[in-house]
Amino acid sequence: MQDKQLDDGDAVRDRTPSAPRRRRWVVSGLAATLLVGLLIYGVTGGSRNATIVRGPREGEATAARASSLLAGIQQHGNTLGDPKAPVTVQYFGDLQCPICRRFELTVLPSLIESYVRTGKLKIEYHSLETATLTPSAFEAQQVAALAAGKQNKMWNFIELFYQEQGPEHSGYVTESYLQGLALHVSGLNLIEWTAARNDPELARTLTTDAQAASNQGLHQTPVFLVSYTGPRPPYLAAIKKQLTGLPTANLGA
Hints:
Strand order of the largest sheet: 1-2-9-7-8-6-5
Radius of gyration: 18 Å
Number of domains: 1
Number of strands: 9
Distance between the termini: 49 Å
Structural class: alpha+beta
Helix content: 25-40%
Number of helices: 9
């Protein structure tokens, strides 16, 4: 039987915080422009115009790499890292976004090793539809990741998805594809994961994320909101530099 196809086809914002002290930045790419007191980093072209060329799928090796990257790091739902970490990055992504894949492969590993693993940074994954062609496909894939988060395995699922990401708009995201990823997430209870995918609260999370992005004027992926609590961490500039140094196909001020 043919498988069912699911898919057709800084800002630096310094606010006066309430206690505890909190500062926020929006980061979405390389170039910078000063506008009404805001330093805004932007990427033009975004996820819709980039082409990623890569080799054949590597199966078990891909799963092993994802497990190794995340081994020993706390996960709580959509959050990777110590909940008490002073710096928070809210990462808005679309699982079919090729630029998000670049971030996952070229920037995220360094952030994890240098800052997440050491308790300095936590990263929250939020969903923002940009590259996926249909709302139904977007909901299916993002909810599948959130369902893994019910077992604190969301980041394992995300890592596998991005590493196994197919050509944009090719319709590769099928039910078998999603189940195949879940099968390779070490320790994931597949019965519980399947049941969680029917939880309407997870679909509502997508709406909440989309509204949060809209409220911040975010329309491309990947994009990052950076904030901290307490005194300004000395490594904050290094984190922002890595996020704004994301290699992209098209750059503009």
